[in-house]
Structures are given as structure tokens and as C-alpha cells.
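Before the break, one more example. Copy the sequence into your notebook; we will annotate it together after we see the structure.
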Amino acid sequence: SDVYKRQTLIFIAKLVGIIWFVLFLYHKLLREWFGLLFYKFQGFPIDHYLPYLGFYFNQVLDGKRKGDANFFQKDVIHKDGNKRLLVTNNTGKVMVTLLDPTLIAEFYQQIHMYEKDPDLMYSLKRIIGNGILLAEGGRWRLHRKVLTEAFAFESLGKMIPIINEVIQERLGDLKTKGTLQNVEILTIIQGLTGEVALKSFFGTNFSKSVIDGKPIASYLSNLLEALILQLFRHPLVFLFGKSVVNLGITANDRALIRGIKTIRETCREHIEKRRRAGTAYITDDGTQRKDCLDFILKHNEKNPREAFSDDEIIDNCLTFFIGGMDTTSRVITFSIYYLLEYPSIKDRIVSEFQNLGVPVSKLTTEDIGKLKYLDAFLKEVLRVGTPTIDTMPRSAKSTHNLCDLKVLKGTVVKVGLNAVGFRESDFPQAFEFKPERWLDEEECSRRNPFAYIPFSAGSGHCIGKYIAAIEAKLVILHLLNNFKVSLSDKDYEMKKALRFVYEPVSYTHLTLPTIYSV
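Here is what the structure looks like once it is written out:
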């Protein structure tokens, strides 16, 4: 009897083990392969397949082998200008990356057929929660409505003093040190853009906060990078899924959980202080200046039924910090590199600014709008090096059609924001850096509007795009106004990796003698 029971239990355990293994195998490997075949049978070949690890792993390898993490997508477009989409996989899911402007336009028309993929955005969601980037439905619409007012083009004039204030403070510190060798420019720009983002949202006092001996901008940046790396280095994620990192099994897991709690509690304390003291914060000269928190707190007073919770305020603050710091700092770093790579372009930007006859610290939005070549230059930088090479991954909620493409339920669909900018039909000589293409009205009129959408498109386009462009232009002009910029390594060639965003593989080091003035 005991032997029979023991044998029965062993049989049941083996059966459960086999069932678990089959389900695990299907979930991690077979499901994505069957999904890939679904598109192959429609006539769309499988462009890349690596069990589970998928296309992201290939991008990491291309960053090391080819010097460009997005080499594969660009190469496909270069070899076949009519390529409409890429069919790949990523961490157990089928992924379709749209490259055809017509398909892209249809995708934005049917954006309601998709939801933001919770698995591929897991690390980000742990820190920014349900802010405007990851919120859905009615809460997303509310966040969008209130925050759009704060970041509207009409509000830019009020933000320019904040941007100038931070730039002058940061670059002023460098000027006092005389000629500088091997300045790692990304770190400086990252600190600058992070401070602008925090000041724009929470005000001056918060941007000067310190956590564990680090400025809050640096603390946040380090925390985000650690969260992203955690998923790829954790020994148990593959077996038990991403949520295992929340159990605090390892010392690193527990440290990151504490880090998230610390940053959120710091934000919560600041919100409560501002709520008690009043909405608008006071600058050093005694004047009041509005920020995003001011817009939100006033909205809460007027609309108690649609009020933002403190967690939602924190979520949005961290969302704008990450967007404002990481992406904008990379755009500016790419811009500086291309200015030094093409001296004639730099000279033309300097000449255009000189002809305007306005000191950089006095520029208004109208003045900046007159700098047409600078605008063309920045557009070209975003075409070849937008930090967000794809849109946020979205999962199809049901099987449906995008033009002649049948999209299977559960497929992750993205837009190849970077790759689509290399289509020869829309951008002749696409692999050449030519700001002039944006000044050619005839060429611009022929271009499909969905061939260039670095800030995404439709109702979910980036609401911070205007302030990001203004900030990048002001940093460029301030830098050229104060320094004779040059590369420390004359043989330096920028290679691009995909980490949290598309960025230089190795840091760009500059020599900054303070002897040059525009």
C-alpha cells in the first residue's frame, strides 16, 4: 500500500513536471515560432529569429560588431527600398516593425486596436508607474489634457528662462576652469537636461535635492540604468518571469526596491510641501514661476472628481525626467558630434546666429524660429540618430488588418522611427548627412509625412517635443558662444549602441578652450 502510494506520487510529480516543461517550452519558444510562421504564410519572410533572446540581442551584437545597434534595420532598407516591415521575435513574443509610411499611417489610425505591452515595458513601469507614457484609457486622456497645457508651444516662452538659467550655470562652472581636456560631454549634458526636466516639473528646490550624496538627477539616471540591466542579468527571470525581481531574492534586487521607494518618497514629500505652501514656487529673486506641478495642483482644486493622486503626480514627474534627460541629452550629444564632423555646417550655424544680432541669453521663441538652418540641422540629427529608434511596443488586442497585413492577436507592433528615415524614396542620398534637404521645399513636399516622425505621431505624440527642440538649440548656441569646441581624439568615430536609448557606444570627449566667442 505504501509502495503504491509512493509510486503514484512519483508518477503525478513526473506528469506535473512534464506538463510544466511543455507549457514552459511553448510559452518561451514554440509560441513565438508559430506566430512567425503566421506572417511567413502571408508572404512576409522571417527577417531574424533567435530563440527567446530575439532581435534585441541582435541589436546589442550589432552595436559591438558593426558599430551601430540599428545596423540591421538600416541595411535592410538600404538593400530593399520597398521593404515594408520586419518580422522578428523578442523575449518569447512575435514582433513586427513597420517601415512603410503607408502602413505606419494606418497603424496610427487603428491605435485603439493595441495596448502598451506590459512585459516589454516592465522595468520602466516599475519606476514611472502609470504616468502619461504608460497609462491607458480615461486616465491617459486626463493626463494628456492637463499636461499638454503645461507643455504647449505657447508656454515655451516661460520655459526659456529656466533652460538658459541651467545652461549658464552648468557651462559657467566649466568656463571657470579654463581650457579643459577630455571633457566627457554626455555626462555634462545629461546633468543639464535632467535638471531642466526636474525644474520644469517640480521647481528649483526639488532639482537641487540630494539622495545618498548624489544630485537627484544622477541618482535617478543610475537607478533607471540598473533596473534595465537587472532583467537581462537576473538568473531567475528566464525561468520564472520578470515579476521575480520584486521578491527581493538577491542583494541587488533589494537595493533597487529601496531605490525606487526612496525616490518616490522624496517626490511625495516635495508635493506635500508645495501643497501646504501654495502652488507656484518662488525663485531666488523672489518672483513666482509656474511649473507642471502648479498646473496639476490647480487642476485638482478645480476638478476634485478628476484629481491626480500623489502617485500619479510622481509617475508623471519621473516620466518627464526620463524623457527630458535621457532622450534630449543624446540628441544634443549627437548634434555636437555632427557639428565637429562637418565644420562647414557648424560655420553656417554660427553665421546664421550672428546675423540674427540677438545675444543667446536673450533669444525668444520667435528669434529661435528664425534660425532656419539650425532647425534643419536638428531635424537631420533626429533623422539619422533619434534616441528612440522604435516606438513604444504595443500588443494587438485582437486579430485585425493593417492594409493588406493581417496582424495576429498578441503580436507586438512597433514603428521603426530611425530606419524609416533611410528610405531613398523619401530621403535621396539617405546615408549622407545633409541638413539642406530640409530647406528644399520641393523635396519636402514630395516626402510622405509618416517618413519622419521622431516624436511619434497621432494622439500619442510626444508632448515635450517643442521644449526638447528649444533646449537642444539653446545648448548648441551657448556651447558655440562660450567655447572653441573640438574632439580630444581626432580619430574618434561615433559608434552607436542600444541601451535604454540609442546612444554612443563610448563617450564623446571634447577639448573646451574658453577663448572663442560667437
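DSSP finds 19 helices and 16 strands in the chain. The mean pLDDT is 86. Try to locate both features in your own notes.
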